[in-house]
Amino acid sequence: MKQIEWIKKIRDTSPRVHCITNYVTAGDVANMVLAIGGSPIMAQGIKEVEDVTSICQSLVLNMGTLEEERVEAMILAGKKAAGLGHPVILDPVGVTASAFRRESALRILKAVRPSVIRGNVSEIHMLEQALMGMETGNLCGVDSVPGDWSGQPEKAAISLGNRTGAVVVMTGTTDIVAGHGRVMKIRNGHSFMGRITGSGCMLDGIIGAFCAVGPPVTEADAMTEAAAMAVCAHGLCGELAAGKAVRTGGGTGSFRMYLTDYMSILDDGMLERGKKIEIS
């Protein structure tokens, strides 16, 4: 991979990242975007999302607390971002939980064609099956269901990417980034990240910041790299935060605070030394 100074670019330009996200984690997402050097805007009113999107450099659509009007706002914002050539990051949170979420995700995919899709193993598999027209039941909420999916998990990520044209980020014990002929396995991270609410939502915002300073969305290979480096950055900060929490006798509350702390002091040298990527 090219040694681009991603974090320096973000902090030099402070890209605006428009996040239509869920109310459970909105504050955490905003603080994480600020920590990496971006400027978050958390507008979701249907009458203003197009205007806000037009002054931002990337758009994050997170389906965590989905409502009918929120879907319409996401589609309006997504179309505006796509028309401006801005990257769109879609997180189909809980797509395994209800038919409404699956139908909404399919509507967004059809109307917007996101640049990056980020989900856990269950969500990526379920979304791929829904695109194939397969009847699926409701399995779980926002958490991944271990053991439900057989075979190599990267196959679902590759298939979903081929069907949508998006870079697919599948998070789990090993994170997978699949995009345009490349598959990257990323082994940064810590189990504490699965014990707090919103770790994946925070990652959405980080991906939004990295993609906002990358080359145009038409340069698909560069979008893959931006997404992969965002995943590495988030996972590395998780490792560092967990280490400090353990050393200081803290638990998951301390870990959450340290996660933001480390993102705020992360630099390109730390990221280059600490990233754990296997590329195929």
From TrEMBL:
E.C. code: 2.7.1.50
Binding site for ATP: 118, 171
Residues annotated for substrate binding in this entry: 42, 198
Function: Catalyzes the phosphorylation of the hydroxyl group of 4-methyl-5-beta-hydroxyethylthiazole (THZ).
InterPro entries, A to Z: Hyethyz_kinase (IPR000417), Ribokinase-like (IPR029056)
Signal sequence bounds: none
Gene3D superfamilies in UniProt: 3.40.1190.20
Protein name: Hydroxyethylthiazole kinase
Family membership: Belongs to the Thz kinase family.
GO molecular function, one term: hydroxyethylthiazole kinase activity
NCBIfam families: PRK09355.1
Catalytic activity of the protein: 5-(2-hydroxyethyl)-4-methylthiazole + ATP = 4-methyl-5-(2-phosphooxyethyl)-thiazole + ADP + H(+)
Originating species: Enterocloster hominis
Pfam families given in the database record: HK
Spans through the membrane: none
Entry keyword annotation includes DNA repair: no
Keywords: ATP-binding, Kinase, Magnesium, Metal-binding, Nucleotide-binding, Thiamine biosynthesis, Transferase
Highest taxon listed in the record's lineage: Bacteria
Pathway(s) of this molecule: Cofactor biosynthesis; thiamine diphosphate biosynthesis; 4-methyl-5-(2-phosphoethyl)-thiazole from 5-(2-hydroxyethyl)-4-methylthiazole: step 1/1
